[in-house]
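yo

u said u wanted the structure for the complex thing, so here. seqs first:
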Amino acid sequence: MILLLGAGGYVGQAFAAALRERGWEYRPCSRAEGDYTRFDVLLDLLRKVRPEFVISAAGFTGKPNVDACESARAETLLGNTLFPSTLAQACHAAAVPWGHVSSGCVYSGAKIVDAAGTRIETDLTRADVRRLIESNPGVVRGFTEEDEPNFSFRRPPCSFYSGTKALAEENVRPLGGGYLWRLRIPFDEVDHPKNYLTKLLTYPRLYDNFNSLSHRGDFARACLDLWRLRAPFGVYNITNPGYVGTRQVADLIQRVLAPDRKFEFWTNDEEFYRVAAKTPRSNCILDCSRLRAAGVQLRGVEEALEASLNSWSQS
Amino acid sequence: MILLLGAGGYVGQAFAAALRERGWEYRPCSRAEGDYTRFDVLLDLLRKVRPEFVISAAGFTGKPNVDACESARAETLLGNTLFPSTLAQACHAAAVPWGHVSSGCVYSGAKIVDAAGTRIETDLTRADVRRLIESNPGVVRGFTEEDEPNFSFRRPPCSFYSGTKALAEENVRPLGGGYLWRLRIPFDEVDHPKNYLTKLLTYPRLYDNFNSLSHRGDFARACLDLWRLRAPFGVYNITNPGYVGTRQVADLIQRVLAPDRKFEFWTNDEEFYRVAAKTPRSNCILDCSRLRAAGVQLRGVEEALEASLNSWSQS
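structre next:
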């Protein structure tokens, strides 16, 4: 039996659906039933229930967006740094393997490689990335799990949210015994305030950038596949291969959904950060070849986006 | 046997001295011998060594002062929030009681009580506290362990350091099984960069305020006494009873040590924070009646200061 923590959240619901789809026995847990963020409560639960595996989709993301984490520091740290540590430690004490939803937003930008594929630059501005993608896309690469986060408390500036996520990975990784599954900007066919497509449809103006993205259902199924395949524990970038620009996604929405609006964009970063955002945003390209090498292949990001829009359903 | 973590630090050394003084068997541990901040390493150590009690004097304070913690966020969180959590959790799993050095700097100011001793105000400015101490000292009280921190991530503004200390207490307290010993501005007779008296002697200008203080040796002995007496686990303010103003301590230094300098003070908060400090400082008065009620009586702060200066020794 699999224990599912944070079953009621946006990502937790996708895990529940994927588990049901496969007919895997699981027990959902939400904070309301018992405070599993307490070590003693969680350890007792693990010893009583004896799950074969624990999935944690719990965390604190900030409402309506990541800016809210700047002032809610205690909640952000409790949810994103202390909780994963407690989870990994309780699971270690109970000898139960685990997987926790981490985030790809510990990076900013992309990296450039030379002909041999060696990393030569990671500190790229948004303009650098755009210029390279337009002029010489072959040298642009996503960050792998071996790349140190470059958008973290150790590499400021970063958002408080990203800092807490990167620190959790740093603290939990050496203990081992589980997976850190990096999600990156979730989307799917269901209208929801946390769905990237809903956000684009509702924001008055859009911020133009390049990103790797994770289809929510594909993400949950890939996580289950890693466990099913008994892939080595550790960190995995779990995004649909490739990356997209915001303008490209807006065009796709326009074409498929034909919404009764035109998409407008912020003129530049200066305007975006002055008017609409308080804290720096992570926009980044991730490499998911480790996931593929483990035997899990996701459809490309453009295909996943198009499929989501084609079966778009309003909640 | 007692396991002493962080034995090499400023406070750890005082614990080592107090343990030797009493002839209590102990095993000192420093990070160099093994990374006890890792849950698995610490749990193995506890299971192998089987100490009757663990003392943790480990933490991250910032050099030369608390401003350094503003930029060293990862280290500050790892040392002051994640580590105490790991300690309490490993000790819980190994069923070993523990004591950890926390800090009184989770408060700012003092509180005012009415005739019945009921709290009526805690959000006092530095000027409020001074005015009250001069006009009506009977209504000024220190914060007890039951008072919520008012200088923390939940009650900003605070220093990043204080935020991490308060969050650690919040996270660890419900788990129980050990002591959180609140130290507040350590001093003693030995010249040292972390000694409050050394700081006053070396700072070009002083910041005038009221504080409760902890004599380093008195603090360590009081902590050992709580364990010896098997006092109930939980949070304890461990300061020498009373409080002092910076001018009063400077006068005492002038009188006893007669240093070849005059003490100058910042004109006001505005000047201090503009020129000398980056992050807000906790200056506060603590109530230590819980410690006394547990059977541990420390000498008053003025007596401890005078004794330290009378036997002042330069390192």
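Chain A touches chain B at residues 38-40, 43, 71, 73-74, 77-78, 81-82, 85-86, 88-90, 92-93, 152-154, 156, 163, 167, 170-171, 174-175 (CB under 8 Å). The domain at 2-310 of chain A is CATH 3.40.50.720 (Rossmann fold).
cya
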